[in-house]
Prior knowledge:
- The protein is mainly α.
- Strand 5 (about 120-125), helix 6 and strand 6 form a beta-alpha-beta unit.
- It has two domains: about 1-190, HUPs (Rossmann fold); about 205-380, Hypothetical protein af1432.
- It is elongated.
- It is built from 17 helices and six strands.
- The mean pLDDT is about 90.
- The structure holds fe (ii) ion (FE2) (2 copies).
- One fe (ii) ion binds next to helix 10.
Amino acid sequence: MGGTFDPIHYGHLVAAEAVRSEYGIERVIFIPSGNPPHKVTKRVTNAERRYLMTELATVNNPYFYASRLETDRPGSTYTIDTVSEISRICDAGTELFFITGADAIFSILTWKDARLLLSMCAFIGVTRPGYNKSSLMEHIGNVNEQYEDRLKFLEVPALAISSTDIRRRAEFGKAIKYLLPEEVETYIKKHDLYRLDLKDFDKDNAIKYLSENLTEKRFLHTMNVAWEAVGIAERLGADKGKAYIAGLLHDCAKDVGQTPEAFKDIGVETYDGAFPQLSHGPLGAKIARELGVNDEDILNAITYHSTGRKEMSLLEKITFVADAVEPGRPEDAQREIRAALDQDINGAVVSALKRKFEYCARKGQSVHPLGREALSYYESLKN
Ligand SMILES: [Fe+2]
Ligand SMILES: [Fe+2]
C-alpha cells in the first residue's frame, strides 16, 4: 500500500484490513513515499518521520509491515521500481496487489512502464463513500478489457478521515484523537509535527482581540477563512503561517467603527465614503500592525482582501479566495470557486471577483475600481 501517509490514520489502516480480508492477502506492506525530488517548498513532512509514524501505526497488526523502500531512495520513485523491488524479495509466484487511492487509478495508464506494471501486479483503488463511482467504474471497465481485470475497487467508509484534515486540525490546535492510532498521535504531539510557523506573532492575543471585537458570526467566518487560507497555501507551496495570520486578521476591522476619524493616521484617502463596506481592508491592516504584524505582504493581503487588485501577490490571492470559499458562503459559489481553484489560483480569483460583483449588484452597491481593474487583469491572464 503506497501513500504519503502524512500522517497515516485509521482510514488507511481500515482500508488495508478490508482489502486484506476481501482478497485473502497474506501481508500488507505500507510504503510511505520518499522525500520529494526538489526541496522547493516544505509541503510534505520529512520522509523519515512519515516512515516512523507508519511503523508505529502498523505495530499491532501481525499482517501489517512498514517498508523503508521509498524512504531511503533519493529523488522521485516510480511505482514500477517499487513493485519490481517487492517482487524481487518475494518468493517466486507470489501474487502482488498494489493498494492505492482511487484518484491514482485514473492516471494509471500514464505511469512509467504501465503495461509492465499491470502485468506484475493488480491494482486496488480504495475510495471514500460519496466518491464519484460511475466514472471510476467506467474507467476500470475500459482498462480491464485490455488488461485482464487488473484493476479493482473497494469502498471504505473510514476513508472519510483524511490526512489533510488531520494536519489542519493539529495546526489549529483541535483534537485529532480517535482519527489515528494513539502512538501516532503521541508522536505528532511530541515532535510538534504540524505546527504553523508564525514567527513571533502572538496568536492568542490576536484571537482575544477578535473574540472581543467581532460578532460571533464574523469570528466564526474569520476562523474559517484562516483554515481555508492555510489549506490553499499548503496546496500551492506557499507560507502557511503567513496565510494563517492574513486569514485570521482579514476582517479584524469589520465590526469596529468605520468613520473618517478611524482612518486619520493612515491617510484620509484610505477612507472611501463611497465604498464604506470595503474600507475595513485598510483599517484592518492598521489594526493588524497594532497586533504586531510587520510583514508587508500580510498587511497588503488584509488591505486588498475586499477589493482585490491587479498583480496581487500569491498571499493576497490566497486570502482573497479563502474569503470567498469558506463554508459559510453559498454552496454553489463554493463549488464554482473550488473547481476553478483545482485548475489554478488566478481562475479562482476571477470566479471570486465575479461572485463579489454579483453580490454588489444584488445589494445595489457599486463595484470598487480596484476590483474592476483586477477582473480585467486576471481575465486577460486566462487568454
Ligand atoms: Fe472583509
Ligand atoms: Fe471576510
